[in-house]
Design a protein that fits this description.
heterotrimer; A alpha/beta; B alpha/beta; C alpha/beta; A: 11-stranded mixed sheet; 12 helices; C: alpha/beta; 6-stranded mixed sheet
Chain lengths: ~500, ~425, ~240
Amino acid sequence: MAGTQETQDHVAEITGEYKYGFVTDVDMDMAPKGLSEDIVRFISAKKKEPEWMLEWRLKAYRAWLKMEEPDWAKVDYPKIDYNDIYYYAAPKSQDKPKSLDEVDPELLRTYEKLGIPLAEQEVLAGVEGARKIAVDAVFDSVSVATTFREELKKAGVIFLSISEAVHEYPELVKKYLGTVVPQRDNYFAALNCAVFSDGTFVYIPKGVRCPMELSTYFRINTENTGQFERTLIVADEGSYVSYLEGCTAPMRDENQLHAAVVELVAMDDAEIKYSTVQNWYPGDKDGKGGIYNFVTKRALCKGKNSKVSWTQVETGSAVTWKYPSCVLAGENSVGEFYSVAVTNNLQQADTGTKMIHMAPGTRSTIISKGISAGRSQNSYRGLVKVLSGAENVRNYTQCDSLLVSSESAAHTVPYIEVKNPTAQIEHEATTSKISEDQMFYCRARGLDEEEAVAMIVNGFCKEVMQHLPMEFAVEAQKLLGISLEGSVG
Amino acid sequence: MPDAIIDAYRDQLWGLIGTLPGLDGVRERALNKFASAGFPSTRHEDWRYSDIKTLRTTPFDQMAAPMQAPDLPAPLTDVAARLVFVNGRFQESLSDMGDLLQAASVRPLANHLMANAERVDELNLGSDSINLLNTALMRDGFVLSIPAGIEIDEAIEIVHVSAGADHAAAHVRHLVEMGEGASATLLERFVGDDSAYWVNSLLQARVTEGATLTHIRMQEEGPAATHTATAIVSVGAGGNYHATNISLGSNLSRFEARVRLLADEANATVDGVALAGTGESHDMLVHVDHRMPNTTSDQVFRTVADARGKTSFQGKVTVAAGAQQVNADQSFKALLLDRTAEANAKPELEIFADDVKCSHGATVGELDDKALFYLTSRGIDPATARQMLVEAFSDEAFARTGNESLADSIRARVGQWMQNHTLEGQAA
Amino acid sequence: MLKVTDLHVSVDEKEIIKGLSLTINPGEVHAIMGLNGAGKSTLANTIAGRDDYEITSGSIEFAGKDVTELEPHERVGEGMFLGFQYPVEIPGVSNLNFMRTALNGVRKYRGEDEMSAAEFMKLVRVKAADLKMSTDMLKRFVNVGFSGGEKKRNEMVQMAVLDPKLAILDETDSGLDIDALKTVADGINAQRRDDTSILLITHYQRLLDYVQPDVVHVMIDGKIVKTGGKELAVELEEKGYADVA
C-alpha cells in the first residue's frame, strides 16, 4: 500500500500534462532538409567516418529506396514526407566535449530539468549507497555527454557513443553492426542504417559483470528533426549488463519521426537486461503533434545459456510500432519480454515481441499488459516460432488488455507457429474493463476515481514493473499515473 | 496469376450463362473481381497457413457427372432427410426427403431463383477470391427455409460426393433461412474418391430472432482432394448458431466461418477438430463479429497433426464500438504426434468497446508424459493410453453437436483415425 | 514378493538412489520413511517403471521375475500397483472408462477374458462404496476437480479394482484430514492379505497408527540406513531423523 500511496503523491505533485514539453534554445548545426545520397554522405562526412561506414550506409539507402513502408500494423497516420525532415541536427560545437565542463551549460540544464544527472559529482554527492548509473545523453542527432567512462574503462567495459566507437573500435563495430538487424530488415531499419546519426555502443568483455547500470537518454529538441539512433550492445561470454533507456521530446504541433535500431548480442552464458521507459511526446488531447516511434529492437542470443530480457514501459509517442524480439540461437538460451503499454487520447500503439526458438532447450516468457484510455488504439502483436530442430522448447505467454474508456480499443494478435512436437507452448489472453467491484472497493476506502484507476492499473502492471530496475520502477509508476490523467469521467 | 488460368475460368463462365436465372451479371462482376485479385498466396494474411499452389497453377474444370453412380456413405445417425449432391449437382433420385417437405421448404438453387428473381441480390459475392470464384461459377446448391416456430429434431443431411473428377471442381452454394424461433440441425458431409478434385463450397445462413441453427460439417474428402469452404452467417436477437467442423480428409482443407451477431443476445459457438494425417494440411478460420451489445460467442478448437501434417487455426473475435456486455471465449489446443508435424495458431481479439470480457487460450505440445505414465501404471498398454488421451483431448470440441447419437458416430470416426495414427506413432 | 538388489538410479544424470536393497515377503507390510529429497518417490516410480528414471545398476525382482526391462503396464499385469503422491488429472477421460480399460488391459495381459460392462459396474460400485466414493465421482473425469482427499480415495478405489499382489503407496497419507486418512487406511488394510504385500512410503508416522507395518526402513540420501520394527517409526517421530540414523 505504501508504494501505491507514494505513486498517488507523485501523481498529485505533478501538474501539467507533459512535463518534458519544453524547448532548449541552443545553436544547431543542421543538414539541409530531405534525404538523398548526398545527405547520407553529408552525415558520414560530418562524423568523419571511414570509407567502409559510408559504403555501408549507402548500401542501406539504396535498399531503402526500393522498399515500401509497412502497412500491416493497426496504426493509422498521414503519409510521411521523408523529404520534409532534417536528418541531421547537432548542437553547435565542433567536437564532442572532452569533459562535462566543456558541455554547453544550456544542454546540461536541459538534462537537469529532465531529471537526468550528467555531472558525475552530483550522482556521487547523492544519497550514500545510491546506485551509480552511467549515462550517454543523445541530443537530437548526437551524443553530448557520456559519464563514468573512466570508471567503466577500469572494469574493461566499453561504453561510448557509436560514432566514437566507429573510430575507436572499428573492428568490434564492423564485426557486429547489422548482424542482428540486417540493413534490409524492414523499411524503418533500412532508413536508420542509412542516416543514423548517433547512439550508444556497449561491449562487456568476457566474464565481466558491469559494475553499474548503463543508460542512454534520448532527447529530440529541434523542430522537424528525425532521430535515428542506433544502439549496439555486445555481451561477451559470461558477462552481465543492465541497460536503461529513456526518451523525451518537446511539445510540438507537427509530428516528429523517431526510427531507432537496437541490436543486442549475447554470447555463451551472458545476460543482457534492457529496460526502456518511453515517454516521447504523445501529442495533445486532439491528437495534434507527437512522435512517430518506429523502432526495431532485436536480440541475438548467440551463445548457449545466454539470456536477454526486454522490459518496456511505453507511455509516450503518438504512434508506436515496436517489437523487441529475441532470436534464440544458442542452446538453452532464454528470452523474456515484459511490457506495459498505455495509450490515452488519440495515441496508437502496436507493440509486442517475437521469440524465435532456433535451438534446443530454449525458453521464453512474454508478459504484456495493454491499457487503453481515451480514444486510443492499443495492440499487442506477437510471434512465437519453434523451428523443427529445436527440441524441448518452452514458451509461456500472457497478454492482458485493460479498457479504461468506452471509446478506446484493444487488440491482440498473437501468432503461434510450432514445428517441433516436444515444444510446450502456452498462451493466455484476456480483455476486460476495470472491474466495478475493484473500483467500488477502492472508492469505499476513500480514493477518488482517478486515484482508484491509477491504483488498479498499477496493480494490473505489477508483474511487469517488478522487472524494472528500482529507480526506473518509481519513475514508470509515476508515468502511468500521468499518462492516464483525464482519462476518467 | 497466369492469364491462361483466368481465361480458362472465363470460358467456364460463358458455358454457365443462363444456367441459373438472373445470375449472369453477378457472375461477371465476381469473375472480374477475381481476375484482378487472383488466388491468394501465403503472403495473404488469411491464407498464411494454406498454400493453394495447385489452384494457382492449374485451372480446374467444372466437374462432370461421373461414369457410374458412386457409393454413398452410411448414415451417421437417423436423419430427417438426406440430400445428395454428386460432383456438385443435386441428385433427386439418390436423395430422400422424408417428411421434411411437410415442415420446411427445400429446393434447388435454380428453382429458387426462377421463382424469386429479385432474390439474386441475396447471393453474397464473398470477400475473397475463393468466394468470388464460387459466385462466378456456382452451378447448384439448395435453398433450405425453415418456417417460423418449426423445430426439426433430426438432422438434415447433405451429402456431397465427388468421383472421377481429376482437376475438376464443384462450386456449390447453399442458402439457409431460419424463421423466427425455428430450429434445425444441418449435417453437411463431404466424401470422395482418390481423384485430385476441388470442392469449393459457400453456405449462407440467416438465423433470425430466437432461431437456432446447428451446423455440423464432416469433411472426409478423398486423399488427393482440395477442400475450401466458407460459411457466412448472420444471427438475430436471441438466435443461436452452433457450428462444429471436423476436418478428417483431403490433402488440403480450409474452412472459414464468418459470423455476425446482429442483435441483443445473439450467440455463436464455433468449434472444430482437425486431424492431419501424413502430409495433410487443415486450416480453420473463424471470425465472430459482435456488432451489438449483449452478445456472446465461444470457440473450442482441437487439432492433431501426424507426420508432415499441418493444422492451423485463426480465430478472430471483433467487438464493435458500443457493443457493451459482450462475452467471448476462445480455446485452441494442438497436439503434435510426430517430429515433422506442425501447428499454427493466431487467436486474435479486436475490441472497440470497454465493458467486455474476452479471453483466449492456446497451447501446443505433445501428449502429456505424466498422464501417459499414469495410465500405463494402471495396466493400460501405451497404444491404448495414447489413443485414450488423444480422444479425450479432441472430445471437448464435440460438446455442442447437440445430438448424442451423431456425436457418438463422429467420435467413432475420430477414434478410428486416432487408432490408425497413434498406433503408427507408437511403432515409430 | 519384491526383491530389490543394490539399486542405483539416476534422473537427468544425477544419481538419486545409491545402492538400495530391500526384500518384502508375501503378507508383509513395509514402510519406508525419510525426509523430502531422500529418494523415496524416485524409488516408487522406478519400481513402477517410469521412463526417465534410469537404472544404472542393480535389479528389481517381482515374484521371482526380473522386471527391470518391463514396461509400466506390463508390471501392472504382473501384479504391481503404484499409488501416486500427486495423482494426475486427465480431462476428457471418465473415471469409469479409465478403470475399465485398465482392468481389461490387465486381464488381457494375463490371458483372461475381458470383464463385461455389467460385471465391471457391479465390482466398481462395491469398491467405491467401501471407500465412500459417490457414483457421481466415478462418472467425472479422472481426478479433474477432485480435492486432495478425493484424489487419494480414487487411488484406493483403483487399487481395489485392480487387486494387486504388491501395492506401493507413495505418500498416500499426505494432505488428508483425519476422516479421509481413516478411509484410506481402511482401503489399505482391506488389501492386506497373506498373499499380498504393501510398501508404504511416507514422511510421517501418522498413517502407521492405522496401518501397522511389519518392517520400517529409514531412507536417507538414496540408501536405507536403518531397518527395524514398527517401534522405529515411533522413535523417528520422537527423536527426528538425525538422531535415529
